[in-house]
Amino acid sequence: MGFHAANINGRDMLSELLIQKPEMPVIVLIDTHVVDQALWAMKCGAFDVLEKPIHPERLLLLVHKSMEFGFVRTEIVRLHQQAPQGDIYYGMVGRSMDMKRIFDLIERIKDSSVNVLITGPSGSGKEMVARALHATSSRANKKFVAINCSAIPDALLEGELFGYKKGAFTDARTDKIGLFQEADNGTIFLDEIGDMPINVQPKILRALQEKEIRPLGSLNSVKVNVRIIAATNQNLEEKIQQKQFREDLYYRLNAMQFEIAPLKNREEDIPLLIDHFLARMKKTHAHAIKGVSQKAMKILIDYSWPGNVRELENVIERATLFSKNEWILPEDLLFSKEEDDVLPMSEWARRKKPLADIEKEYILEVLQHVSGNRSETANILGIGRKTLYNKLAKYGVGNS
Q1: Quick one: average pLDDT of 258-264?
Q2: How much is the pLDDT for 108?
Q3: Which domains does the chain have, with CATH numbers?
């Protein structure tokens, strides 16, 4: 923003802006050599000042730096809000012995930069543990950068991690900074590291041992100071035997290991997690749910949860959308993998209907809960608006 020395409203606006949005960095444009403007702006809390006339290179550099500063400041506020409160620890929820052990281990190594390997089934909350480890470390005010190694094609993964120089390969039209450089002085989270290509693993080992990486197409190495937290749902020792994972990298990553138990072994955490999800969903869903009925709770506790915490969250969100009552009932529960020993036989029979009928019911329920807002419905369903319109036309649903 810019203001003239005589423009008191401009100064008031800056003060009010910094009060209302303290986490937002503000760059102030000032007249050349007007020192009192610069001093006043900095005293008010402006991120920096920029003299007129504006030089594009200087402006671009300041904007880039202010964005990084704003990210760090916002992250600090978020982490402060997630500080331990009873059964909630940095966003993780649990009172089981397994979760208390995780919380205790994090406390024991806080302020440390030791490399950590997190193991556990898919959906169990490995990234939440990684974020808590970062939040309690001396790197908490620096970046936390996450990447899922199994989600990036093998041919692209090295470039994503280490960056590349212009011309390194056919589509490399500009230089690119990799995630290791982006996370410098912070933490990088390598999720599903068991799927990392064997040819990329020596370069991760080099980053661990030598604290340096080499972008693709570059003749020079770049120093990086990064804490590595890795996670996997696989048995890495078996992959070592199969020559699919380097033994030296495994022992470097495994300086400290956290093992997360599957949700089916932590049934005392299920009611807490449900309350946590419902409280969060009240802020975004029009239909307020007071809680879960006793019968529904028994079904939820007895279920095997192959998808773990992620599946529980999805089931509760679907139930919140479907339920017409103040309490979630057994008939509101839709599992991705229903089992005879969990759901009553009557529920199994009731749900045996054509897939098209189930899809139509679900779409109409979502539409109802968002008061007919089709854009919001498409977002919740995870489909495009055009796809939603096609489905509505297919099922004979008009514009009313």
Answers
A1: 96
A2: 92
A3: 8-80 (3.40.50.2300), 91-261 (3.40.50.300), 264-394 (1.10.8.60)
